[in-house]
Design goal:
Elements lengths: L9 E5 L9 E5 L5 E6 L5 E2 L2 E2 L1 E2 L9 H4 L7 E10 L3 E2 H6 L1
Antiparallel strand pairs: 1-7, 2-3, 2-7, 3-6, 4-5, 7-8
């Protein structure tokens, strides 16, 4: 998720939050790997699940390679980055 997030960032994740397009979400990829991705506006929510994308188009895996992510594979919504320096999600989104 670079440049938005970096390796070893500590995130505050709300497991009960409602997923909305544009938000960062923690998901389980089809191979079982946990990942942070962005729920998108373009495909929004369809019967198969959420369409998620990466912030860096040159690296990583997203729905363009795996397809839609099942709602049960969404673990939570990122609310803030706590470490290395607190940064609220709204500040991250506008950066």
């Amino acid at each position: 998720m670079e440049p938005t997030l970096r390796d070893r960032d500590l995130l505050l994740v709300d497991r009960r939050a409602r997923v909305r397009p544009g938000r960062l979400v923690v998901i389980t990829l089809p191979d079982g790997t946990p990942a942070v991705k962005r729920a998108t506006f373009w495909h929004a929510h369809d019967p198969a699940g959420w369409w998620v994308e990466r912030d860096n188009p040159r690296a990583g895996v997203d729905s363009w390679t795996t397809g839609a992510i099942a709602p049960s594979a969404v673990l939570g919504v990122v609310r803030a980055r706590l470490w290395p320096r607190p940064r609220l999600w709204r500040a991250v989104a506008s950066a």
